[in-house]
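It would be a great kindness if you could assist me with a short task in structural biology. A protein sequence and the C-alpha cells that stand for its backbone fold form the material at issue. I should value your view on which stretches of the chain appear to form regular backbone elements. The record follows directly beneath this note.
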Amino acid sequence: MDKVSIRVNGVVRTFIIDEAEGCVKPSETLVHTLRDRLNLTGTKIGCDHGACGNCTVILNGNPVASCMILTADCDGAEVTTIEGLENQDTGELSILQQAFVDNSAFQCGFCTPGIIMSAKALLDKNPNPTKDDIREALSGNYCRCISHYQVEIAIGDAIGRMKDLRAKGEA
C-alpha cells in the first residue's frame, strides 16, 4: 500500500492510499481529505470543480483550489488551511483574519476562508502589493454576497498593521 505524508498546519499527517475502507482513495481530492478526515471544515466546498475559489488553501506557498488536487499527489507537501492562520497557542486570529472582521469584509462567510487564503499567499510573497496585485490575487475567488471593495479595504488594513509591526521590530 502506498502512503502519503502531508504537513497540514504544521502537523505531519500520513495516509494510506488504497481503495480499502478507511484509506484515502487514489481519486480523493485534498479538500475532502481536509474536511472529512481531518475535520478542517473552514476549507469550503463550493463548486467542487475549481471555479469558485472557496476551497483555496496554500500548498507549498501557493494558493490552490484544493478540490483540484489529489491527496495522493501531495506527498511531502506543506498545506496551510484557514485554521492554520490563527495563533496555535492562544487561538488569536491572524492580523489578516482580524482585519476582515474589523472591516466587515464578509457577509455569509462561506467564501471568506478562500479569499483570506488567497490574500495570505499574496502577502507572503509581496508584503506591499498594489491594488491591481490584490485584485489579480483574488481573481479566482467568487463571492455572491459582498463586493470585493470591502475585502480590498480589509487587506489594505492588514498590510498597514503588518508594516507597523515590522517598524516596531515585532514581525
The chain has a mean pLDDT of 95. Helices lie at 30-37, 95-102, 112-125, 131-137, 148-167. The longest strand covers residues 2-8.
